[in-house]
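Hey, I was hoping to borrow your eyes for a little while. No rush at all, and the record is pasted right below.
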Amino acid sequence: GGGRSHGRRCLYLQQSVLQAPADGSVQQGALLPCAGLGEGMRRDIGSGIDLQAVRALAEAGGFGPWQRCQLFVGGASAAGARSILHFDQYDNLFVQISGWKRFRVYDPQQTRCLYPFPIHHPLDTRAQVDLEAPDLAAFPRLSEAVCSEVLLGPGQALFLPAYWWHEVVTEPHDSLTVSANFWFAAVYRLLTPTRPLVPSMQCELARQLEYLVSDCLSDRARLVPAFFSALRAAVEAVHAAADARSAAADAARADAAASEALHARRPAGVVPQEWQGLFEYVVRQLGSLVGHGSVLRFCLDLLDGGRFARLTLG
């Protein structure tokens, strides 16, 4: 890629060099060189990447199948180049070969503070906040986010688990800044999750709920924030009604309060039975996946309708 840095032309290479076979028949350390690489690059890959060491790290860490290796190269003019705050859906072993890079890292529990773009947005997996120019009026919870900074130098490696947020900045260097990363599939954690879900899997659950709600409401992604706001209000109403004196009265009052809150926020044109049925299904699934006592916290943290406020959805 190319860009401008302080008025100078900046060239920056990001290239996949190894990838899993198209048929998925990959064993640890059995990736194939990507198409289009020259013979010199292929020789460098063969002599420069210690497949046994990568395999040993993967086995020790319990990583999933190795999926891809990427090469990053920037010249002196790449100083300040920034990969804006995002997460990957792969476990990522990032190795610094020459030069320095600075990482700002946030664990998945900070997601509520980073205002992710929704799954239907072109910038899905990225944060709406700008760490270089924070707008706390628009994104007030950013002030609560807990960040870890890591300065990575030659010969050092950083492991970034899937769904960990990170921003990467190239530090000034008088020669080439070279890095490589190794991506490992995390799909096994999706297929065999623990219950209640760990924070990283809760982040993915919130994303999948956006898909589900849109699909159930005739592929109208613009209705997702309205449903999330209604879901939150209904769950809050249940909690507010929980102080009734008798169990029977408590249940009846909670149901009535939840229904009123839910349908008060139902958009015009949405069939009441569809809205109600979707609510009941989602609440039941959330109770199973995050725990009944954590449904409201999940809604407050990861289904905040307010993060859609500045966006246009179809």
Summary: The mean pLDDT is 90. The CA atoms of residues 105 and 166 lie 4 Å apart. The first strand starts at residue 2 and ends at 5. Residues 272-290 form the longest helix (19 residues).
